[in-house]
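Handout, section B. The chain below has 99 residues.
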Amino acid sequence: MLNKARYLAVVFVACGLAVGATGCVPSFPKEKLPSAVSSICKTEYNMDVDVTVLGKTMGIYYPMKGLLDAGLSVSSEAWDSISNLLLIASRVVLSTDAD
């Protein structure tokens, strides 16, 4: 029983060290936010965007065709583009060292 407890303790400590050692460095430095967002948009979704960071605000400009469908509601393609942009923005913002 003591060996099992030691084994579990070693595994727990090893997992804690592995988790603690990763994720400490920001993936997207503040200076590279616009280029990071533009790059991800282009490579993952083939979207050409203009990104501007002013102070603590990041703006993403993406002109899209077909925003509204025949019933004057947002088209499904537009919703897909908007959700992709929100996903990319949240990924970058949550992994940056910016304030």
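Note. DSSP finds three helices and two strands in the chain. Compare this with the example in section A.
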